[in-house]
Amino acid sequence: MAKVRDGRSCIRYKCGLINTIQDVLRQRPNWVEVKDDEEWDFNWCDVGWLRENFDHTYMEEHVRINHFRNHYELTRKNLMVKNLKRYQKNLERDFGRTEAARCDFFPSTFALPSEYHLFVEEFNRSPGSTWIMKPVGKSQGKGIFLFRKLKQIMDWKKDSSRSEEQKDVENYVAQRYIENPYLINGRKFDLRVYVLVTSYVPLKVWLYRDGFARFSSTRFSLTTIDDKYMHLTNVSVQKTAPDYNPEKGCKWQMQQLRRYLTAKHGREMIETLFKEMDNIFVRSLQSVQKVIINDKHCIELYGYDILLDQNLKPWLIEVNASPSHTHSSQEDYDMKYRLLEDTLNVVDMEGRLTGKEKRVGGYDLMWNNGPVYREDVNLQTFGSLCFTANTHLGCVNDREKQLCQLLKPFPPQRKL
Amino acid sequence: MEDGSEFSQSVAQIVQRLRGSSLHSQLERQAKDCLHRPEIKLESLKEDVRNFLKTSGWEKKLQNAVYRELHVSVYLGSAAETPSRLPLISPQLPTCRPKAPAEHLKEPLAYMRKAQASWEKRVLKSLNSMSTELEVPLARKRPAAEQKELANKWNEMGTDEPDLSRFRPVYAPKDFLEVLISLRNPNHDSCEDVSTRSHWGLIQVPLNVRDVPQLRKAYSELSLSMGQLGIDDVGNIHPDLFEGDYVHVGKKVVAEQDSAAAQQYSRRGCPTGLRADLWALILNSTNQPQDVMHYEQLKAGVIQHGLLVDNLVYKDVKLTASNDDYYFVFEDFLYQVLLCFSRDTAVLEHFKYNSATPPKSFVHGELQRTAFVLFFFAVHLFETSACCPNRPDCCLCSVPRG
């Protein structure tokens, strides 16, 4: 049995993925990998394993696993929208339209075919608009296409090449396409942001300072909606585009993007933008708070995809439960390594934290059963109206320095 | 410090340069228009108009313009003035000597002049032979269809994919480096002993640079005891300790629209959100209607006449900017700026104090002096900046990187 609290014994881990996380776990002092049937204290699994094994796995109190059992309430496109719509309706009922308007960050979306008629109504209300069809369960841009005429969906439904997906005909969403994305030198991009949830009830959320912007390799134009490569910014799709240059990643670090936007639009406007993004993260999690099975063994690292439009309004595109840990460059690898290392620091199997920290490495505590502020609220500051959120997305990530100050060093590693 | 006669000469020179400028006419108009205002009294007319110009911000504009001229006029010495340019290299000529020719004032060192002339000839020859070989004229009038197309995609020239494989660079960086390395001061005996000194670097021309105490004095704003952006505003340092106040001061500088203050302020860093405004102030570049008109004229020039170097510019930007993760942002702007820049006759003023000759070409008998300005500007920029690190008027030096 591993004694976790005193940090003198080792922590047994299981890891189902072969990418950056393997390196992070292997290089963590006093963590040892276990074989298939052995007991583990920490499991970094893929969602397939979770689905098959979670329900018949007994976990002791100290054990941790990297997914919530029904994470798909947030990460499957149709369920996410369902939960958000319900949450928004409840807000309007309880607090009025202004409060509900704070949820206007997701584009009009309809599950098909169950909401087909509602979709057609909305479609006809906005003639000439562009829509995007997405399979709910797939990732990496597979099966996505754009359309402007209902005829195009009819054709698609009849298309025999889709025969193997006939039974998945339930699992599509039609979403209003954002036709005025914010462009940088004519190129569209989206943002990947990392959000760590260590508990849903009470809701405890950490926001990572690093992230990145993924650029399309070709210029944006509405006239060629057949060009798959231009509209989709997933790295996986971009990798197959004909003029893709594998040496250049078309990725910007979040810090670079924030600096660019600040230089272009001024500090205040961009601080507002990032505040609105904080709002997206918190509210999307609140919308599934009552639905997710809040098992205390579970934590989850989400990859949020955000798109900016020309008015600098952020839109929630989707939430990923298994954000890719494969890397497209050394820079990318380093960032994901830091992210995963800090995730393990927050989970704190070694018991080195007090539990009162507002920052651990590159993670800032964004929500702890209520908003978390940078300023320490005490009697003196209580009267002040000037509270800033404790989030630093796209800001300097001097995590090593902070970790040195925060944590006791690891005990000397035992040779195996 | 300059003595009385030199000072009044500088003043006269600056007045001369500002007279007839658009700022001058704007000031006159403002002065006239304000006469009907209630606070302008006949008995104290001069005083009141001055005050009005002060409070309405026009005096500040004049101040910025004068400040700008001060920098430029230092280099635009008339023949009678003792050249104070290149103080570190050229000897001070005593005023009793006969007047030196203008060329000698721009570049007093004979060996430099010779090297410049031979380099110019070489580049020009390369360009001319490229023109003959490819059968592309140095300058030509664009056919109407081409003009229309160019006008249509002016804002996204990066989308164009012309075949420029025939165009080679006019010179390779290696060629230029060889020329620089081979520069020798005939008065400096450097071949005698193979000491460690002769192996310190590639450049053999002795360059007088500041020593550490002088650098410390010149860049005193970067001393350890002073706060700076990029160092004292990151991580765990509380914004109240430096950043908050510094940004606050920056906002005031921008509000005051004071060019000299902006330059002084930026020595300790520009806050990202204020950078654009501060640099516009430092360069005293405004978006007056006449500036817009000037730009439109240059743009029309680009559209109407194509130059051989346009292809080289396009190819260079395409190769460098479009493939780079960070510079791709500026790709379209670079085309617009560089193509217009190479037709801007205002740049020819640079040759009043820089010893180069803008080559000429003829298009249907019209003198096209602007064609290769850009190239030579870059070449001489290197030479001058190597010798004089303090050339604030060189806008290429001043362009913020990244």
UniProtKB/TrEMBL annotation, chain A:
Which GO terms fall under biological process for this protein? microtubule cytoskeleton organization
- Fetch the Gene3D superfamilies from UniProt: ATP-grasp fold, B domain
Query: SUPFAM superfamilies annotated for this entry?
Result: Glutathione synthetase ATP-binding domain-like (SSF56059)
One Pfam family assigned to this protein is: TTL
* InterPro entries with a match to the protein in the record: ATP-grasp (IPR011761), TTL/TTLL_fam (IPR004344)
Q: Could you confirm whether the keyword ATP-binding appears in this record?
A: yes
Q: Which GO terms describe its cellular component?
A: ciliary basal body
Q: Which UniProt keywords apply?
A: ATP-binding, Ligase, Nucleotide-binding
The parts of the chain that form a coiled coil are none
- Name the UniProt record assigns to this protein: Tubulin--tyrosine ligase-like protein 9
Automatic annotation (TrEMBL), chain B:
Species assigned in the record? Kryptolebias marmoratus (Mangrove killifish)
Q: What is this protein called?
A: TBC1 domain family, member 19
